[in-house]
Amino acid sequence: MAASEAKLTWFGHACWGLETQGHRVLVDPFFDESPVAPVKAADVEADFILITHGHFDHIADAAPIANRTGATVVAVFEIAQWLARKHSVAHTIGMNLGGGVDLPFGRVKMTLAFHSSELPDGSYGGSPAGYLIRLPNRTIYFAGDTGLFSDMRGIGDEGLDLAVLPIGDLFTMGPDDALRATEWLRPKQVAPSHYNTWPPIAQDAAAWADRVRRSTAAVPKVVEPGQSFTL
Ligand code: NI
Ligand code: MN
Prior knowledge:
Blueprint: E1 6-10, E2 16-20, E3 23-27, E4 48-50, H1 56-59, H2 62-69, E5 72-76, H3 77-87, E6 92-95, E7 100-103, E8 106-112, E9 129-134, E10 139-142, H4 152-156, E11 162-166, H5 175-185, E12 189-193, H6 205-215, E13 219-220, E14 228-230
Parallel strand pairs: 3-4, 4-5, 5-6, 10-11, 11-12, 12-13
Antiparallel strand pairs: 1-2, 1-14, 2-3, 7-8, 8-9, 9-10
Bound molecules: nickel (II) ion and manganese (II) ion.
């Protein structure tokens, strides 16, 4: 794998792995209670963990993995504080919408997301977020849990190699709005996320991918939980 490349692995739901330049990044770790995760939290390695918001299906395994591996957790300020104080996570980076931080693999900027964010114990989780990750030669956008919003056009101006978008509907954008998001974001590739975990968010990803091919310039990347692709 060339230094500029990135390997993406979908662990089901909104949980993704990003391997780049020798660093292992996890986004929204959700393994042990996920009905679709192909591995358990105890079997996952990470150097960095990015959290989009406080809902259990995004943060459930963050503290156990961070405390076992020593990974640094990046999250909105309130969630970073909660992980440090209530779960003894040693390395956290708290940030907020619009802010960025330079990490060893690239620059991570926190983008807005229209959703809610209460932590599993009822604590305030701050604002929900997405992430724009700028690697040396690749730019990746994780929308997080969100509805469609027109500022995605501006995020698209960043020049995206990959956009990871929820398509599950009910709690997030559904397939129709995710198609419009793809038009606005103009990524080279787009991967669906946050679907088929439970019946209420069941979606036909292959059918959505066909619509992406027909009506946008993006290449859809549909994988099964546990499968990977490279950028
Ligand atoms: Ni959520
Ligand atoms: Mn969710």
